[in-house]
Amino acid sequence: MRVLITGGAGFIGSHLAQAYLQRGDEVYIIDNLSTGSLENINHLKENADYRKRLFVSIDTILNRDIMVELVGTCDVVHHLAAAVGVRYILDHPMESINTNIQGTEKVLELCNKFKKRLLIASTSEVYGKHLHAPLVETDNIIYGPSSKFRWSYAASKLMDEFMSLAYFRTTGLQVTAVRLFNTVGPRQTGTYGMVIPRFVSQALKNEPLTVYGDGRQTRTFTDVEDVVWALMRLIENDQAFGEVFNIGGTEEITILDLASRIVAASNSSSEIKRIPYDEVFGKDFEDMQRRVPSIEKLRALIGFNPKTPLDAILSKVIRFTSKRTNGI
Ligand code: UDP
Q: pTM for this one?
């Protein structure tokens, strides 16, 4: 099979590319390296077997000519190209909205033209500021005002979902949207705000772990390999078209407890420091206090059952980060 991965040099995209190459497929990547990096895929390009089946275009998904060629060539499309990370979105609001709206519009239009199966990555941000758990795909959505720019990301991804469902209903496009909850694993960078790579590198340097707010906000974390497993199965499942699925873990933890676990797991002497949100993000910031997915819909369709507990995820990230820091 020929698989196109937009955002294939990103954290999740590069793991997905690797899994398809391992399976024997041909992989086409398009990535503008805004938050992705060639470092994420160098090991694939250096592999004698994989490199014959890996085609990388460093370009934007807004370039119609190249997208026509790529979508025309491939059998299925995973659309993962998007602005990622709270920090990045706050710093690049215009670019984030453009990629999410215009980029996705282009991918949908071309997959419809060439009749290609499509999986669109949406986000758990779409739910907004709920306090209940678990979050079910049919739940209402609650956002803050448009002056709080964090919500622009949720709103633009929600529009991606609407556009996908509209195509499915009007043209029969074989499209599925997934709401990705916090996904973690080797190669994820803390540069754009992601908490686990940030805490792990702080702990390994014995620097203070920067807990934002009071640290009582919670998240669940999923190993990227569990996420990749689900993405590969969903895109091949006819029952998934025209549907939206949560993909995430179920082990809820406060950010403060997460910090303590990372300090212990990495034998660090770091202290834990609380920092008010406005010192980090300015006054127009709102965090999500709680974010736990219901994975029943996904479990029922493809038997999704995340295999990697949080402690194992943390060990993996700690191992990877200390090797990289030591240049091994
Ligand atoms: N966070 C933190 N310190 C950091 C980075 C993040 O306390 O150095 C918190 C952040 O405020 C949020 C949670 O960790 O409550 C998860 O943040 P992340 O950016 O990884 O993902 P989000 O769930 O916000 O998209």
A: 0.96
